Amino acid sequence: MSRTILVTGASDGIGAVAARRLAERGHRVLVTGRDRARTEAVAAAVGGTGFVADLSRLDDVRALAADVLAATDGRLDVLVSNAGGILGLRRLTVDGNEATMQVNHLAPFLLTHLLADALRAGAGIVVQTASEAHRWGRIPIRATGADLTLRRGYSPGRAYGTAKLANVLFVRGVAAHLDDLHAVALHPGVVATSFGTGSTSPLRLVYRGLARRLLTSDEHAGETLAMLAAGTPGAEWAPMTTWTSGGYYDQRRVGRASRATHDPALVDAVWRASAAATGLPIHDLEANRAKNP
């Protein structure tokens, strides 16, 4: 059955590959990216609609959600949150959030909530591109709640790992906080794309030169992302067919996420902190929590 699927971060790399694969299977694909020319080129190639948005601006995320709702008449089957990256020196966005955390986690967190009713009207699926780098992440819980600011011990790599940890915690939290939605996290492999190009992190060197020959191809990783988007939540992992909601997958295998991702208190604390950082009302989250104890 054909689905309507939104893929973020689809102007190049694995997002563009996933968009093409999904379109080849007969799905209606909508794509987003920061670069207008590349985003529109991918949209034209898949016969879909392109949206330009900068995830470092939450107003862009809100406008994107409104445009998607208008284009889909309020019904969306799958949201593939693939946009993200390793950034440079610590900086705050116009919204006052640490930039790596906002682009990789807070923006898709907000977008999911804004599209939640549309997703409920469809297949109700959220696919989140995560990373094994989540193991480097640390999110302390202070008296005021989970700290997503990275004020102490900042480095581009640590910031990225912490944002990816938040991604996996978000997927764990969907079942507890959002009725009738299913979410899954994917580590697509270390992919030989332009990822990390704009970063000052030493990790960018992995994506250059001879090291690229050892990396996963964007075609392979994009196909895996498309498999999850076209798959169905089920009790067990059946490659290319079913996956477990709340699960973490390492390429085409069941992955083993870090111990921190299995801590319900951390899942809840990060959810609350993310809601506060994106301007979502806590009482709405409490209402969902009451229905999903």
What is the chain-wise order of helices and strands? EHEHEHEHHEEEHEHEEEEHH
Report the total helices: 9
* Proportion of residues in extended strands: 5-15%
- Could you state the CATH homologous superfamily? NAD(P)-binding Rossmann-like Domain
Q: Outline the biggest β-sheet.
A: 8 strands, mixed
Which structural class is indicated by helix and strand composition? alpha/beta
Low-confidence stretches: 205-214
Q: In what order do the strands lie side by side in the largest sheet? A: 3-2-1-4-5-8-11-12
What is the CATH architecture descriptor?
A: 3-Layer(aba) Sandwich
Helix share of residues?
Answer: 40-55%
Radius of gyration: 17 Å
Distance between the termini: 33 Å
How many beta-strand segments? 12
The whole-number mean of residue pLDDT values reads 89
Instruction: Write down the CATH topology.
Output: Rossmann fold
The figure for the number of domains is 1
Anisotropy-based shape? globular
> What is the CATH C-level name?
Alpha Beta
Write up what this structure looks like.
With 293 residues, the protein is of the alpha/beta class. 41% of the residues lie in helices and 14% in strands. The chain has nine helices and twelve strands. The chain has helices spanning 13-24, 36-46, 58-72, 99-114, 116-120, 156-177, 218-230, 264-278, 282-291; strands at residues 4-7, 28-33, 49-52, 78-81, 125-129, 141-142, 145-146, 182-187, 232-233, 242-243, 248-250, 253-254. It has an eight-stranded mixed beta sheet, with helices on both faces. Strands 6-7 form a two-stranded antiparallel sheet. Helix 4 (99-114) packs across helix 8. The relative contact order is 0.15.
